[in-house]
Specification:
The protein is α+β, with helices and mostly antiparallel strands. It contains 12 helices and 12 strands. About 35% of the residues are buried. Bound molecules: adenosine-5'-triphosphate (ATP) and magnesium ion.
Amino acid sequence: MDIEGRLIEYAGQFRLIRQVARGGMATVYEAEQIGPAGFTKQIALKIIHDRYATQPEWLQLFIDEAKLSANLVHGNIVQIYQLGRTGSEYYIAMEFIKGVTLRALIDRHRHLGRTMSPALAAYIASRVCRALDFAHNFVLGGRRLDIVHRDVSPGNVLLTWDGHVKLADFGIAKARTMFDPAAQRPLMMGKKHYMRPEQIMGGQVDWHSDVFAMGIVLFELLSLRPLFTEDETEAAIDEVVVAPAPDVTRYIPDLHTSLAGLMRAALSKQREERPSAADFGRVLDQYCVLHREPGSPERLQAHLAELFPDTYRPITESAAPTLTVSISSQSRSHPSFIQRLFGRH
Ligand SMILES: Nc1ncnc2c1ncn2[C@@H]1O[C@H](COP(=O)(O)OP(=O)(O)OP(=O)(O)O)[C@@H](O)[C@H]1O
Ligand SMILES: [Mg+2]
């Protein structure tokens, strides 16, 4: 039988469970994909607001970008399952993340008046860099797709209760940043405080722009304050494009030279001076190794459990008590399976 190119028809349903959030462009629901014989899969369903979906220019950009990102399958990226339409409503079905946004983690730290450990910040940021590196260099059918996120910001970084870091909304930003349905004209702005100089000025946006945004996010993780704060367009242009890059060491006491240098390079107005996402991530990983605090999901998991005791609900449940073994504190840990492997009794 000839199977190549054969089309298989399928019909499906989603059951909405609850509304997770209503954003400017879409509403996100926790939902279930329903299949035959009681099959269900937990998903997130992002339903695009009508005022966007009825604009043909916007819709075309949105669909083109979603098509580019459809095959981005990586542990640090929220996976897209489907782009679909029911009647006049467009939706994206994607991996459902149980956890919190990085925005919520930063806000929680600020609320508690507790700084974030640089090693934890480096772990989170390095995982976002892995996602970006994968997308920037993604090849499909022998062709580099040059995918750019364009909206790297704490609201789009999701942290699972199990301690994994996932970047969301790949390919969604372009449509939103290029076209404002209310104004019916091109709009050059992304999220105000995470804009890159070339994006504000309407220049070409490529992977360098995502690295600039990573510099802003790392700054915010380490200082718990936004780097750029101006809301008015003119002032924002002045702040990001005209004024010299802020001296990050002024705001973060005891900032390690490697992290200061990394942010300085990433935030350079000359995009050629910015490191690749891969190099950005490597510097962060080296920082952790140097400080004998390698980042791990277990550490982030423990941190989230401590900071969000009321909502913390991990997906996994370990049968054995969790062991946290750090290189520097091995001697303090109780004798364990792992220590026996290292020759300690
Ligand atoms: N895949 C997902 N799984 C679980 N929750 C999600 C998922 N995607 C988004 N969310 C939740 O929905 C909220 C709204 O997401 P949404 O992407 O619509 O808005 P945003 O990220 O705040 O802004 P933007 O429109 O710039 O992306 C997020 O803050 C997050 O809490
Ligand atoms: Mg988002």
